[in-house]
């Protein structure tokens, strides 16, 4: 009799097990058949049933079914704003229940990559429509799906900037820095936003210091830091700092170019010229040095032109031709510098505009016309 009773209990247990898994099995079969609405109904039952609410399989298929509805041309109409969040929660639940070595956890990486792409595409669609808040919300979720990915954080910063919410944009750049993405571009964008917002000079200087520690050859960061030194009347300190840097790294062309810029600001044109020329000697493609050499020669030429223009008729008859000859000499000296800068950065508008003016002054009509066409195409 006891043996019969155990057999009855075993049968009853099997019936319970079958009943508690039927919703999961039905969801899986409907999913395979492409009947995602029916699969959704069944899986929703399974995750709340007391016998299957802690089943990794139930939660895995909950995520899979909802995720496949996002991409389905038929069932995507049933997808809500909350759907991607439900998918992520389901997959996170699988990891929580199984750990890293579980059967269903092993299948998650591919599914998470797909989810990241789906959410990012939604974010970009909102971004293109300039629906900044919705775009930022989706970028945030994409970042949660892939915490070490830089794309979602970068575009979230762009969206916040588009919204003119500079403080929020800065927080995204800080997140990028926090995951080790310490590029010059990130620091440059962050610092420009700090300067456009209410950040203090001390805060900006700290960011510049950190940026230079990560990007010691960044001309932009060096020049920005030096602006603050010069504005504070610390031009000598700025010069000393650069000279120490050059002593430690004597073949760094960027350092010479920046030192030349500091000297130019201090009206030490001879020293500036010397260091700009050293920069291009070390780096024949150093745009900043070539451009600044061109500007210096152009400015010298302009001084002679202005002097000649202010002369009365009698004085012009005596001095005008000589002043114009001096101006031409400096315009001729400026031309090759601007040409070299243009070669280094062919799309720089300022360089093309200055080169056009030089060609015009030198009566180089064909060259001026060529630059004029290039400028017209870049407008």
TrEMBL record:
Signal peptide annotation: 1-19
TPR repeats: 253-286
Keywords: Repeat, Signal, TPR repeat
Presence of keyword Repeat: yes
PANTHER family cross-referenced by the UniProt entry: TETRATRICOPEPTIDE REPEAT PROTEIN 6, UDP-N-ACETYLGLUCOSAMINE--PEPTIDE N-ACETYLGLUCOSAMINYLTRANSFERASE SPINDLY-RELATED
Protein known as: Tetratricopeptide repeat protein
Organism: Pontibacter qinzhouensis
